Amino acid sequence: MLTKFPQALMLGILRGIVQSFKLQRIRTKSLLFSVGLGLSLAIWAVSAMQTVAQNSANPTVVRIGYQKAATVLNALKARGELEKALAASGSSVKWTEFPAGPPMLEAMNAGSIDFGYTGEAPPIFAQAAGTPLVYVAYDPWSPKAEAIIVPKDSPIKTVADLKGKRVAFAKGSNTNYLVVKALEKAGLKYSDIKPAFLAPADARAAFEGRNVDAWAIWDPYLAAVEQATGARTLTDATGLAPNRGYYLAAKSFVEQYPSALKTVLDRVSKVSDWAKQNPAQVAKFLAPQLGIDAAALEVAEKRREYGVLPITSEIIARQQQVADTFYKINLMPKEIKVQEIVWKGNL
What we know:
The chain contains 13 helices and ten strands. The chain has three domains: 12-44; 64-141 and 244-341, 3-Layer(aba) Sandwich (D-Maltodextrin-Binding Protein, domain 2), CATH 3.40.190; 147-236, D-Maltodextrin-Binding Protein, domain 2. The chain is an alpha/beta fold. This is Putative aliphatic sulfonates-binding protein. It is found in: Periplasm.
């Protein structure tokens, strides 16, 4: 016959079983926490490694936009030195020519190019339009390297005489800014002229065909038309516009491939130093590629400055003035802050 368990003994056994389950639950939770923490750390480590790898990797192709006015990039392309520098890391180079800065930066916005060079105005309009670009360096160029010109026998003698006249220039270009500042100095408003927004090739045809009264243009187009037609300068940019050039890169390229960016800037700087010391050689070297007479190119080379320089607070302030001017005359839809898209890296 089975003996009944005493009540106290039965309660003790039950408490033991419950305590055992509690301890098991604690161990399970601890184990799950440890596993979860381990997985989190592993995921973080993988993510960090991927970021480092991404930032140190090299692109398959570095896509560069250039225009005929950009002597340094033209020389860099012709000499093939960038291709040599990037080949060791497995990257190639693709060059695309543009008639002016604005369409070049439109291509950057579309993701078609990684790096380019323009005058001071195009990146301002591009930033206002939301283009993800970054200022990475600047070129001092020269206020003598752009001007407002008229035919040699034109009755127009001063900038003030442009009132009511048709003036050609590329919209959103550095010469667009020159026109605004020259009119202000002459006591005129931007609305006092009739702008003809034309790319350089079309503007020259209109200028020589007398379909416009004046043309605001930069070198080497300026030197070429002066030599070919004897065009007369109303004013250059001295005291009106700094006429700097800017090296720009797509934001994604800067973030993902800083090493490749520094390689590009290093090679640009080396070619810039060479060009500064050899204006005649540069002109002879580039004449057949640009389709511009070597004598005109040499004039353009001798009146410009060279350099691949870091963006300083002073340069940012001057560029901000350009942006504020365009906003003031309603050419830009909104105000921008140039400082927000300046590269923090080192040349």
